[in-house]
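Exercise 7.
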Amino acid sequence: MLKRSLLSLLLILSGCGHPSGVMTPVKLSASAPRTAKVDMLVATTRQPSGNPATLFTGERSPKPYLTEIAVSIPPKREPGTVQWPRRLPADPATDFAVVGVKQLETVSEGRAWFRQHVVGGRALVFIHGFNNKYEDSVFRLAQIVHDSGMHATPILFTWPSRAKLVAYQYDKESTNYSRTALEQALHTLAADPAVKDITILAHSMGTWLAMESLRQMGIRDGHVDPKIHNVILASPDIDIEVFAKQYVEMGAPRPKFTIFVSQDDKALAVSSFITGRVSRLGAINPAEEPYRSKLEKAGITAIDLTKVKSDDALNHGKFAESPEIVQLIGRRLMTGQPLTDSNVSLGQGITAVVGGTVTNIGTVAAAAVAAPVTVIEQPLQRKGKQSKAEDRLQGDLQPQPLVK
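Solution. The predicted structure, written as tokens, is:
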């Protein structure tokens, strides 16, 4: 019965979509309504399509590519939404529209672009999830940047996804294929003197790619680059026990972690079924045991979006579609501001698990969680000595399942 229900859900959702071929730039006329514009740098391990309307395919490229892209956002729209054009070319007055594309040939050109667009030395690196075309991730990042009010330079890392619900395994292997490229991109970004701090925002299967790249960085260097201050994992499609090992093996000190979870996430339910009914990190209830106490040691903030209403049939993109949450990302999480003060208001029913005790802040219940490090074995050898905190973390935890 469960298998039939999940397959039916996949068939229904496979009919959803939007016009493709939206990457050809359109011109903004002088008489058009004033629109907002988001400039971004896009790094990808996708294969070029040879078509300016799509730019890149879902197949894998042996080398990465850099592109600067400008997206126009219409003046009248609901926050959290992406206005896909109903017909082409897009109308900037009513649609999200690409208004500029330039292929960059070298890393030096990418650095020059960043210096021209730097905002306070802060960079946001967005990594999309499963079932995404190149244009999907471009428009989603533009929406997040605009709606969040963030003061940061947006950088998109888009990996090869075939954008088909039946291509889950191909997409998963594509994240593994791309992890070294992402690690190198983060190293290059952190090495730029114009960059002061980096926030990684990863969604769904992209959270696996983010964690694997940070783990690789930690194994090579002994720790994650200190300029990477914040890591935000939205609907993380990661086996909980694997996440535990990734977290420890990236070394210390670590960035500050925030996870967005939802127990009604149908995409993660499908993922759990595909992977042998293994629980996914993005579907836990962080306020319940064993998660709350076991997570507390690592100090990760968890925000439970289960009660948040969404137009997404999968309930998988709530972090970007909720105006309150996307603004929380841009104005508080990226700047390191605490959530435990009277100015926080996330909306009715949203639970934030922060800092150690349960308190009420407006409509927010707060408590403390941390990484699910309950199945930790000895980590790989790294340069230098482990921190005392990591030693305590490993000594306190014995191998045992997180889910009874």
